[in-house]
Amino acid sequence: MLTRYDQAASRAAARVMGQYSTSFSLATRLLRGRVREDIRHLYAVVRIADELVDGTAHQARIDAAAALDAYEAAILAAPEKRLHTDPVVHSYAITARRCGFQRDHLVAFFDSMRADLTHREYSASELAEYIYGSAEVIGLLCVQVFLAEETVSAADRATMDRGARYLGSAFQKINFLRDLGEDSSVLGRAYFPQAAGGELSEAAKSALIAEIRRELAAAEKAIHLLPLSARVGVRAAADIFAELTNQLAATPAAELKTTRISVPNRTKAWLAARAVRAVRAVRAVR
User: Fold this and answer.
1) Domain CATH code at residue 138
2) What's phi and psi for 262, nearest 5 deg?
3) Can you tell me the distance from the alpha carbon of 36 to that of 231, in angstroms, rounded to the nearest whole number?
4) Which of 45, 105, 258, 278 has most Cβ atoms within 10 angstroms of its Cβ?
């Protein structure tokens, strides 16, 4: 009976991912076995916390700060119990135990989510701290998932951790650019110091695009080191976000305030297929 409940909880987490992100859903389907399940379990928790601070709690007329505090407490305590009535918390607990998630990474994540309830603009140092908690530590947790059943050298692990942080940071900055208009007009936030009020100059946008591309490039060495159970999925995600970066680069800065840029589903599918071919080609050479 418990196994059946585990499976139902895992499917619930997968539904959360499928509802909110076509890009990550597609990339995650390219992961293998337990790795795929564990990433879905982690994503569901991240998404629910993000929803609490992005207006869902407000629309439900509940205290977002109190709801986030309660959710953080539930997530931090989750690995200690084998059964949870919340299926997302239940599936997360299975993954956290199996992969040995570090408590401080989750605390940093929730600290960043909490900042969304109080901050409207960020300084450069505040933004770096926010991105560490909201994205870089998620990358580190993903590495924990990818290596749960693997043995790697300390040097390779350090490279993968650095790459995960670079990739997480790049993904977050891409999202900030893509959502510039909504963040400003709906949520009243300006993550980039150079985009206060939702206004971003062409020069500032170009500098941010260059920064994102440097981080994507810096993550490449880590992607090549990942176990095959994870490499294709991460390759696909990186390529999809690189394509989104190209589209953002081609869009005038003034349009980002009113236009949400996205990668067409057919392009995502093509990039995913290319990622599969690329990893297979590397394996054939070796």
Assistant:
1) 1.10.600.10
2) -145, 160
3) 12
4) 45
Residue 226, by phi and psi: left (phi above 0), alpha (psi -120 to 50) or beta?
Answer: beta
Contacts (Cβ under 8 Å, ≥6 apart) of 231:
223, 224, 279
The Cα–Cα gap between 11 and 7 comes to: 6
Q: Are 48 and 254 in contact (CB under 8 A)?
A: no
Residues 149-164 have a mean pLDDT of 97
Range of the domain at 124: 119-267
The token duo for 51 is 């929803």
Same domain for 164 and 252?
Answer: yes
Using the structure block, give the residue that is written with the tokens 């879905």. Answer: 40
Do 94 and 148 have their domain in common?
no
Residue 282: pLDDT band by 50, 70, 90 thresholds?
A: low
Mean predicted confidence (pLDDT) in 108-136: 96
The reply to whether 138 and 210 lie within a common domain is: yes
Task: Give the C-alpha separation, 286 to 284, whole Å.
Answer: 5
Q: Give the whole-angstrom CA distance, residue 75 versus residue 284.
A: 42
In tens, the pLDDT along 16-68 reads 999 999 999 999 999 999 999 999 999 999 999 999 999 899 899 999 999 99
Are 227 and 147 a contacting pair, CB within 8 Å? yes
Residue pLDDT, tens place only, 218-269: 999 999 999 999 999 999 999 999 999 999 999 999 999 899 999 999 999 9
Report the alpha-carbon distance of residue 227 to residue 283 in Å, rounded.
Answer: 11
- Please state, in angstroms and rounded to a whole number, the distance separating the CA atoms of residues 242 and 244: 5
